[in-house]
Specification:
Elements: E1 4-9, H1 12-20, E2 29-32, E3 40-43, H2 45-48, H3 58-64, E4 69-71, H4 75-90, E5 96-99, E6 103-107, H5 114-129, E7 133-138, H6 141-150, E8 156-158, H7 161-170, H8 181-189, H9 195-198, H10 203-210, H11 212-220, E9 237-248, H12 251-272, E10 278-285, E11 290-296, H13 303-312, E12 320-328, H14 337-342
Helix pairs in contact: 4-5, 10-11, 12-13
The structure holds thymidine-5'-triphosphate and magnesium ion.
Length: about 350
């Protein structure tokens, strides 16, 4: 039997803000707005008491919590903290799969007793990053995630095989990973609100109603999930460059070359089946100095648009002799398709608009 740990940082962006600015600790901190098209990214648990939630318009959050401290997101800082968290994981296993910046599944099957290890990981995340997390330990990914969500924040929950059905039974069906708002609506028409209600559906009915996901949900509702952890084997970056036969002094001249490189790298990553989040334009000048600039794909815009922006950001007057275009910062190559899709459909560089039917 597998031993899977799911770790999820509590109120991640807001907790980082409170960590960096102690004067905000214990207060309703709401992160969002500005680069986020006016919606809440997340908020501290103090703000949740007022009914503020992720993805809520900031204007509504202000109504619900006028005394809230509204802060713009600082993605670079969150990425930094995310790396610190991963460093802790890697001290225990190579077999971990990250989801976004603040969640991960760890395979602890090789530990004879995973409970003390899980406790230690939770403690070390706190000690080494200053952030609290909720962790769930169980015998598959689906149940580990359910466990970590059960008693947030700062939770430690184990679901043992003999407890699984009883715990699942009373949960809202929306707790199952893969049941989004749309699926919930569909199910509510059949008066299915809890996991126990969902048990009424036969496998055939579940598949008929929900397609392929129906099968996975049929299993997950019964505590079954045979997904394996997908470790990040993806290449660190993928790029193409070309040295020019003569120096170029104008953006107009460099742009078509950059675009042809972009096409090639896009082809490369399609073949590899990976999804990058960052594009880089590299330029070597006639005097051999090298410059590179990057853009994160925040809104799922075409890469060409970001490349245009990057081209605008360079100076061409000293002559360009080499152009390179690269992708990096890859999302897990495999994993679940819905998790990949969600990367590009939403406001932050790392999150999808929690896909309706994950
Ligand atoms: P979550 O782990 O879903 O949320 P959280 O960490 O803020 O709170 P908790 O886990 O305690 O419930 O998401 C992690 C980060 O992702 C979150 O801090 C901000 C970002 N995020 C968004 O930007 N938009 C969203 O709709 C969600 C859900 C998260
Ligand atoms: Mg979290």
């Amino acid at each position: 039997m597998k031993k899977i740990l799911h770790v999820d940082i509590d109120a991640f962006y807001a907790s980082v803000e409170q960590l960096d600015r102690p004067e905000y600790r214990g207060l309703p901190v709401i992160v969002g707005g500005s680069s986020n098209r006016g919606v809440v990214s997340t908020c501290s648990y103090e703000a949740r008491k007022f009914g503020v939630r992720s993805a809520m318009p900031v204007a509504l959050a202000k109504k619900k919590c006028p005394q809230g401290i509204f802060l713009p997101p600082r993605f670079d800082r969150y990425v930094e903290k995310s790396k610190e968290i991963r460093r802790v994981f890697s001290a225990y296993t190579d077999r971990y799969q990250t989801v976004g910046l603040d969640e991960a599944y760890l395979d602890l099957s090789d530990y004879e007793n995973a409970v003390p290890v899980a406790k230690e990981i939770k403690r070390r995340v706190r000690k080494e990053t200053g952030l609290t997390c909720s962790v769930g330990l169980s015998y598959n990914m689906s149940l580990a995630k359910i466990a970590s969500d059960l008693k947030k924040p700062d939770a430690f929950v184990v679901i043992r095989p003999e407890q699984a059905m009883e715990i699942l039974r009373t949960l809202p069906v929306g707790t199952l990973h893969g049941v989004g708002k749309k699926t919930q609506e569909l199910l509510s028409k059949k008066e299915i609100y809890t996991v126990e209600d969902f048990w009424r559906l036969s496998l055939e009915e579940a598949v008929q109603m929900l397609g392929k996901m129906g099968h996975a949900l049929y299993d997950r509702a019964r505590g079954e999930d045979d997904r394996e952890i997908v470790t990040e084997r993806s290449p660190k970056s993928s790029s193409r460059e070309t040295t020019l036969p003569y120096d170029l002094y104008q953006r107009e001249a460099v742009a078509p070359i950059a675009f042809s490189l972009l096409q090639e790298v896009e082809q490369d990553i399609r073949e590899e089946g990976v999804i990058p989040q960052t594009i880089t334009l590299k330029i070597k000048y006639a005097d051999f100095t090298m410059r590179s600039k990057q853009r994160k794909n925040e809104y799922g815009v075409p890469w060409g648009e970001l490349l245009e922006e990057l081209l605008d950001a360079f100076d061409y007057s000293s002559g360009v002799r080499l152009v390179g275009v690269g992708f990096s910062n890859f999302a897990p190559a495999e994993g679940e398709r819905y998790e990949q899709l969600s990367l590009f459909s939403w406001q932050s560089p790392f999150y999808g608009e929690r896909q309706e039917d994950q």
